Amino acid sequence: MTHVLPYIVEFSFCLLVLMGFYRLFLARLTFFGSARIYLLLALVFSLILPLLNFQFGVSGNLPVNTISSIGIAGSQIINDGSESIPFLSIQVLLPALYFGGLIWILARLIFGLFRTIRLIQNSEKKHYQGFEIALNPAFRPASFFSTILLPTLDLKDRQYQQIMIHESVHIREGHSFDILLVQLVKSIMWFNPLIYVFEKILKEVHEFQADQQVTLSYSSIDYSRTLVQILNTNRGLQLLNNFNHFQTKKRIIMMHKEKSKESKKGVFLFGIPVLAILFFLISCSSGIDRSQLVGTWTGSDFEFEQTEGADMSAMIEGGKMLHVDGKLILEENGNYQIVAGQGDMNGSGTWELGSDDILTTFDGQESTAYSIVSLTDQELITKHEVAFESPMGKLAGIITLTYNR
């Protein structure tokens, strides 16, 4: 869970900025279809950007370490790591709380989905202008994917005609898929208040979009009366596009609002530089962040490229045995430990990340510098050049160490 908190923070930051842009510049416009697309893209970008990582400016120069023996500086990390974690520690409680909430919300979502499907299956079916209508006294005017849900149907009644137009817009535009996507994200981010605000805004835009279509055929005053008359209906299921799910007053104000001029659509284009800025802030970096290195790394591969001197194969085998399956622990407080593959302590001291992505360890007597050539959430690869004098003359080479988290 090392990278979960940074992801949540970056997701929240992206969503907050993009929703803020919507509130400041787009919410007053009457381009509801464009607003819906913007909001969906905002959610998708907020989910994806924290997962991207583009690094620039990594140095190609290898640090040279002059040593007295070829022991492997680099097989590192914690002693055998079998400290027991108290049952009620924060490491246990937080994941338990999160997964408990996740399971509860997913269960509610699945239950609501199947309950709605069952009600539709047990309802009277009619077809009108290419739409399936499910009639059931338990329903209030709503839509569910390709089906319009109504308690009764009287196509001679102007209110029902208006309701049919309204719900048909939800179906044609695929609003139920939007809601399902948000519900899934909300299940994962159930603790994050921003996703609830986002859900409210998106559903609001859905209603504005459907209301706008109704007012093309009926006067705003006539349709407003319909909204007021059904104001006191009960709250529907979360997966439904409910006919009167939001503040009726706000919907009435919006439908009486003067239609925005086409030239104002250009305001949406200002969202592009906002996305670009977020991309560079969240997904691009000029180097490696120190927090990315913190953790326990297990040695998985050892390579040596000799550049000078007599054959060193036998000495290198010893270094490989120390590194492979060994542990390198880089702690947040700047301390490190190295445990050899056989389980023996092989070194400890302090570490720091310097310029040009150079990782330096210091054991109290000498320091060793490593150039980080690749870093992902699960893999770390370093290179460093070693050189020392021996009875056979100067020996030198390049060591490449690979670790898995």
List the SSEs and their pairings:
Elements: H1 4-26, H2 32-48, E1 54-55, E2 64-66, H3 90-121, E3 124-128, E4 131-135, E5 142-144, E6 147-150, H4 158-173, H5 175-188, H6 193-214, H7 220-229, E7 241-242, H8 248-255, H9 271-282, E8 284-285, E9 295-308, H10 313-323, E10 327-330, E11 335-339, E12 345-353, E13 358-362, E14 367-375, E15 379-390, E16 393-404
Parallel strand pairs: 1-8, 2-15, 4-6
Antiparallel strand pairs: 3-4, 5-6, 5-7, 9-10, 9-16, 10-11, 11-12, 12-13, 13-14, 14-15, 15-16
Helix pairs in contact: 1-2, 1-9, 2-6, 3-5, 4-6, 5-6
Q: Please, could you describe this protein's structure?
A:
The protein has 405 residues and is of the alpha+beta class. It contains ten helices and 16 strands. The chain has helices at residues 4-26, 32-48, 90-121, 158-173, 175-188, 193-214, 220-229, 248-255, 271-282, 313-323; strands at 54-55, 64-66, 124-128, 131-135, 142-144, 147-150, 241-242, 284-285, 295-308, 327-330, 335-339, 345-353, 358-362, 367-375, 379-390, 393-404. The protein has an eight-stranded antiparallel barrel. Helix 1 (4-26) runs antiparallel to helix 9. 27% of the residues are buried.
